[in-house]
Structures are given as C-alpha cells and as structure tokens.
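From: lab user (bench 3)
To: helpdesk
Subject: output format question, protein + flavin mononucleotide

Hello, I'm new to running complex predictions and I'm not sure whether the block I got back is the full result or only part of it. Here's what I submitted:
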Amino acid sequence: MTATDNATETVVPQTRHAEAGLLPTHPLNSAEHRAYYGALPDPGRLPLGELAALLGHAGVRGRGGAGFPLYRKIVSVSGAARARRIAPTIIANGCEGEPASHKDKHLLWLAPHLVLDGLVLLGRELRATRAILAVEAGAPNGRGDLVRRLRDAVKERDVRHDGVSIELAEVPGRFIAGESAALVSTLNGGPGMPSYTEHSVRERGVGGAPTLVQNVETVAQVALIARYGADWFRGYGTAAEPGPQLFTVYPGRNRPRVVHSAAGARLWPLISDAEPVEAVLIGGYHGSWIPAPPARQARLTEAELGVPLGAGLIAALPNDRCGLAETAHLVRYLALESAGQCGPCLNGLPRIAAALEQLADPRRAARDQGLVERLERWCGMIEGRGLCHHPDGSARLVRSALMTFRTEIAAHRAGLCTGGDRRPLLPTPTRELVH
Ligand SMILES: Cc1cc2nc3c(=O)[nH]c(=O)nc-3n(C[C@H](O)[C@H](O)[C@H](O)COP(=O)(O)O)c2cc1C
Ligand code: SF4
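Helpdesk reply: Thanks, we reran it on our side. This is the complete output you should expect:
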C-alpha cells in the first residue's frame, strides 16, 4: 500500500470558520456541488475586472510552493494578452509531482467542480479561449481512478452556461513535471522540462499565448472567494498570510492525512499524535527542516517559523531517525528527478547528494572533516543558476539540514553513530530516468 492510499482523512482543526467546512467529506458530483457551495456567480454579478479586484483585496497567494500573489500574476498575464491582442490560456496545475504531497489530489477527488469553477471564473475574467486542468497521468489515488473522475466532472459542465470550455491534460508523473515552464513545454508537445527561452510562460506559454499557471488549490480559492467574498477569505489565517489552506501532514510513522487549517494555527497539535519528534520538515522537499523545540511553540506562519509554508507539507521526523540519512535520501531523489539540463543540476546536485550520503555515514564522515564546508559552498554555487528553481529549493533543504541536525553532524564527524534509524521515512518513488 502506498502512502497515497492512506491519505484519506480530513480533519478540520483550529480555524475560525472551521464549521464552514472547506471540503466535503465525500466526492461531489455537479448537482451535489451546487447544493454544497451554492451556484457559480453568473457574469452579471461579477462584471469584468471585479473578480481580479476581489482577489487582490483577498490577498490570495499561490498554494503550489512559491506563494506568489495571484493578483499580480493576473495583471501580468492580462497585460501581456492585451498588448499582443491575443487571448490567454489558463492552467490549473494539479500535477502534484512531490510524492509526499496529497492535498491537490485530495481536493480534486472530493471537489473537482470547485477547481473547474475557478477555471471558468479566471477564464471569463481574462477572456481566455483555453482553460486546462493538468493532472498526473494515472494519478495514484487509493480511493479510485482520479483521472476518470476528472474526465467525468469535465463532461458534466455546461459550456453554454460557463462560457469557457475546459480540457483535461494528463502529464507524466515526475517531480519536475509540475514546474510551470516544464508543464507548458509538455502541453506544447515538447519534453517535460523548462526550455531555454527569453519569454516567461506569462508572456508566451501554451501555443505561444500568455498563460496563467496556478495550483489547483489556488484556483479552488478563486471559486470560494467569488461566492463568499474577500472578507470571508481574510477571516482565515493572518493579515500577512490570509485564507484557508490545505496541508499534507506526516505525523512520524503514522499515516499521512490532509488537513484544513490556516496560517496562524498552532503547528504542534497537527502532529501531536506522532511519537517523540526530532525535527519537522515544513513546505515540502524544497522546504526546510526546523528542530522540534521551536516547532513545539510555533504557529504556522512564515514569520514565526522563519521558513515558507511552500506546498503545505508538514512531516514530523521521529526521534529515533537520522535526519542526515533522511535528507541524503531526499536529495538523492531530487538530484535524480532534475531535468538534467543545467549545470547546477547536472554537476551540483549529484555531488551534493553524494557528500550528504557521506556525512550521513559516521565512518565516512569522520574521514573527511571538510564535508560541511563543501556542502555550504556548493549550495551557494547552485542557487539562482538554474533555468528553474529546482536547485534553489534543493539547496534550501540542504542548508536547513546542516543547521537543524548540528548535533548529529558533530557526532558523525567524531565517527559516532547517534543510533538513528537510517531507513527512509518519506516516499521517493523510483522512476525511469529520462536523461
Ligand atoms: C521543480 C518544481 C516542481 C513544481 N511542481 C509543482 C506541482 O507539482 N504543482 C504545482 O502546483 N506547482 C508546482 N511548482 C510550482 C509551479 O512552477 C508554479 O509556480 C505554480 O504552479 C504556480 O501556481 P501558484 O502560484 O498557484 O502556486 C513546481 C516548481 C518547481 C520549481
Ligand atoms: S535547473 Fe535543473 S530542474 Fe530546472 S531546468 Fe535546469 S536542469 Fe532542469
């Protein structure tokens, strides 16, 4: 059984509007969806320009990892489209390439029409001619065939009412596949990796048209804000990080689950059923480790944690695990999953992965006292040098491990084993290499 098979539980802790229930507990068809969330506001109620203003007021930031403000992306894509007198394309990014993350598949499984509503609303607002929902081909989901469910949901839509027709696109299941330029390349019939071009996808994306790529959770937020308003959205979270949010929680060895919460909620109760915890990974495989003591006190905000919430992964590392071995395992995976076309990924990541593996092995770490300094230097050499942010995210993870697991590093350098269980905790599926 895979970790995904287990990610079926939804809990609703700690948010002011928890009673509103962001997601249903069972999958909704189109009619059930309308009964649960209310009808999609028709164009008369949301004249052109009004939705963008509403989203700006709500302060929505992307839920796919980088947390970029949605309003600024809408302005930039619609500006590029107006300048070239060409209709833009909208993509709801449901690739969820990160193997430990389940929140996007969970959302798509339970409330696909929320994402389709968001696509329709964004499509109307930007006068788009194409709206695409991208999802991993044969996406694993313990509860059924997600792609078939999405195909059925798309068929249920009434284009005459929506005004925007939606295509479903299946893309390869790779870590890099959901990166926006890689995704656009796939949809354009090219290889699933970012290509060298002077234009961003916002300027020239699918079919050369300006393209808005948003994570499916961000797109679902659009559908909720159009119905319930910006103040409803701001009623969740904090002023700087507003809105309800989905997180995938790995409480140690216990089964992962998807939770509704929001920035500002206490972190510890989300993982409190875990055995004694050494550290917590926040954000995802491009995220950061933080030690257990500050995590115990912290609220889930970037300001308090000092690290971005990223794609919403929260993973507790039990006390008896070796954090260096876990990080080496993740970084080896990240190195293998790169598109292997830029220097930092071709030369940097494999060396960093090998050095981390050495550091994770006390006998080998003791023989080379320069490992940590080299790792720090190599992280500096790959940051900001790739065609995409894969090297930056990987370097962030490594740097946070060097800070968080200082005690283990000192022990390993002295040739001592802290007794940590070295078996990998988080999933890193082996896939065929494409390069
Ligand atoms: C290596 C890499 C992989 C990514 N994978 C995903 C993904 O699977 N899903 C996703 O929504 N965003 C992914 N992103 C982020 C996208 O490039 C893009 O920023 C995001 O889809 C924009 O949506 P948002 O602003 O709503 O977050 C990835 C980025 C990188 C660098
Ligand atoms: S930085 Fe790495 S993952 Fe990104 S395009 Fe270049 S080789 Fe591929």
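A quick orientation on your result: Strands lie at 10-11, 89-94, 130-136, 166-171, 211-215, 244-250, 257-262, 277-283, 288-291, 313-318. Let us know if anything else is unclear.
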